Amino acid sequence: MSLANPKVGFVSLGCPKALVDSERILTQLRVEGYDIVQTYDDADVVVVNTCGFIDSAVTESLDAIGEAIAENGKVIVTGCLGKKPEQIREAHPGVLSISGPQDYGSVMSAVHAALPPKHDPFLNLVPDTGIKLTPKHYAYLKISEGCNHRCSFCIIPSMRGDLVSRPVDQVLREAEKLAMGGVKELLVISQDTSAYGVDVKYAQHEWRGKTYQTRMKALCEGLSELGIWTRLHYVYPYPHVDDIIPLMAETGANGMRKLLPYLDIPFQHASPRVLKLMKRPGAVDKTLERIQRWRSIAPDITIRSTFIVGFPGETEAEFEELLDFLDEAQLDRVGAFAYSPVDGASANALPDPVPEEVKAERLARFMERQADISAAKLEAKVGTTQRCLVDALDGELAIARSMADAPEIDGLVQIQNGFMAGLKPGEFVDVEIMGSDEHDLFGEVAFDD
Ligand code: SF4
């Protein structure tokens, strides 16, 4: 019998939620004694975790499957595109198995069939926190699966089902282990973070001798006990979001904010009629007043949002309403997409599609308007001192992020004297900001005289 461990290659595509699925599968593979290898040549079988959200993601996923078949031959497909097995089989009839998102059991069965595990109990030594694909000092914390909403442009509920919240004590215990393992920043993810616990009627559980509700605010209070950064993603503008803003202004015993003053809150549009057509959850009116109120409580709050332009039926006047909203809201970070029909979405049946060239023109106008706002927001930070978390060293520079920067989607802080200051990844440091461009900040560690 061969002494070598069976070897699995892994390709992880898609959003942070898919990344968490990949981490779970990788953890299970390691528990069962599989080695995870970096090249197709070294792998005995390859798992591809796909994304199927928009057409370009489908193409990227199908290309990745094709590459894995060409380079290795033995390919197991999972993830969101796995909900459309016929599409995968049509393009790549040779795949060994297809399963949908979070179907860890099917992936493991397919791996067992293609490549039986080697039985060795001493191989079962993996950290409790599992295998992480992110650097050691930050981690995604998934608090729920699925979604109870039915936004007309989205097919996630049909792929991932209704909301299922993880019990709050389970989430807090996972967060605690991550913090003990060296994680300095938790990125809370779900499809709708503000809906956390609705499905379990906010059930109460004990953690560290205290009772917590399975609810966004209680979760944030629990996470604030860990004394590290906690960043919330995918929060929808429900009234109870106001309840967590005071935590963003409060400082804990170790000088760290109890909750990062950062909200990733996808508004998608500003016209009430378009929002209704989109069937968006949350309050659609008084958004501007609420943003002002949040800023009066936590003045340095960073608001990141995403928008769709050219949604079916969007008139020029409604689009201009959106531009006016940008001017008034002065959001820090904004992503925008031209509407693109997703197979199976109910918005496809809406009348008055916006012509492609009008969509492209509106997207360009939107991005131009926001670019000036984002650049001015960054420029206003020149001369301030920002608490940053170092991600990496690059020659003389340290690459870090401030409280305003989520990994991968926001900007960076380049610390010019990072190497000289002896900075290391995962370290917090106060940086004097000396310059800015459209996306990033530049600064130096302040040395005492
Ligand atoms: S809230 Fe809307 S966009 Fe988000 S996952 Fe649910 S249905 Fe999709």
Q: Tell me the strand order in the biggest sheet.
A: 2-1-3-4-5
Sheet with the most strands, sense and barrel status = 5 strands, parallel
Cα-to-Cα separation, first versus last residue: 65 Å
Q: What's the total number of strands?
A: 20
Our estimate of the beta-strand percent is: 15-25%
Helix tally equals: 12
Helix/strand class? alpha/beta
| Helix content class | 25-40%
Mean pLDDT: 89
Give unreliable regions as ranges: 120-128
Quaternary organisation: single chain
CA-atom Rg in angstroms: 23 Å
Globally, the shape reads: globular
Name the bound molecules. Answer: iron/sulfur cluster
Keywords:
449 residues; alpha/beta; 5-stranded parallel sheet; 5-stranded mixed beta barrel; 20 strands; 31% helix; binds iron/sulfur cluster; Methylthiotransferase
Give a quick summary of the entry.
With 449 residues, the protein is of the alpha/beta class.
Protein architecture, described:
The protein is of the alpha/beta class. 31% of the residues lie in helices and 22% in strands. It is built from 12 helices and 20 strands. It has a 5-stranded parallel beta sheet with strand order 2-1-3-4-5, with helices on both faces. Strand 16 and strand 17 form a beta hairpin. Helix 6 runs parallel beside helix 7 (216-224) and helix 11 (316-329) runs parallel beside helix 12. Iron/sulfur cluster (SF4) is lined by residues 147, 149-151, 154, 156-157, 191-192, 281.
